[in-house]
Design goal:
There is one protein chain. By secondary structure, this protein is α/β, with parallel strands linked by helices. It has one domain: Uracil-DNA Glycosylase, subunit E, CATH 3.40.470. The chain has nine helices and six strands; from the N terminus they run H-H-E-E-H-E-H-E-H-H-E-H-E-H-H. Strand 5, helix 7 and strand 6 form a beta-alpha-beta unit. Helix 2 runs antiparallel to helix 6. The radius of gyration is 16 Å and the shape is globular. The two termini are 31 Å apart.
Length: 206
């Protein structure tokens, strides 16, 4: 079920969990498992969404940190039942981006809030996750572009550019309602960035 907020469904969450056994997901499941072991059970680390591109992804959307809905669903996904994920889903569709060529992750892969409120990621939070981002960059051998979503994700730019100088980097605004609804032109800014990404992806195929 590929539509906004479908991960509100228990059956859909179960279906995605079953898909994590696919061979192309196994290395990513391994990264998540190692983070969980290293950080301990008090740190919540959602899985990659198996409907995305897996290890064959050419584009990595790097967000800040998982929110409460990602923790609840168990996935870092554009199908999570919140407005930020819904905006991201709709904007990607409008820009014509094939999600099977992309993957979504967070600069800080564990939840850093308490209860239903997430605190902003700090530079030290992102640095603590450097080794896991490097593991992901090693795993995504077909990666061509990293898109930093929002200002906080840019704390990881140093690692990405230093560790994988072969890939392109770009930025786009966060798709939270707090940004998208703040001013009439904000949604257009996010869409323009994704349309630029679509052009770059086409150039990768040339």
């Amino acid at each position: 079920m590929d539509a906004p907020k479908t991960l509100s469904s228990e059956s859909e969450r179960a279906s995605r969990t079953a898909l994590l056994s696919w061979p192309e997901l196994y290395p990513l499941v391994g990264i998540v498992s190692r983070i969980r072991i290293a950080k301990g059970p008090s740190f919540k680390v959602p899985d990659f969404d198996p409907l995305d591109g897996g290890i064959k992804a050419q584009v990595l959307f790097l967000l800040e940190a998982p929110g409460p809905k990602a923790v609840a669903s168990g996935f870092v996904s554009r199908n999570n039942p919140d407005e930020t994920a819904k905006n991201f889903y709709l904007l990607n569709n409008e820009a014509g981006i094939d999600r099977r060529r992309t993957i979504i992750w967070n600069a800080v892969p564990w939840y850093i809030g308490s209860g239903t409120k997430i605190r902003p990621a700090k530079r030290d939070d992102v640095r603590e996750a450097d080794e896991w981002l490097k593991s992901l960059l090693d795993t995504l051998q077909q990666l061509r572009i990293v898109v930093f979503v929002g200002q906080k994700a840019l704390h990881a730019q140093r690692v990405v550019m230093g560790y994988r100088p072969d890939i392109e980097v770009m930025t786009m605004p966060h798709t939270s309602p707090m940004f998208i609804n703040r001013a009439p032109g904000n949604r257009d800014r996010a869409l323009a960035a994704l349309k630029e990404l679509s052009v770059r992806m086409a150039n990768c195929d040339a």
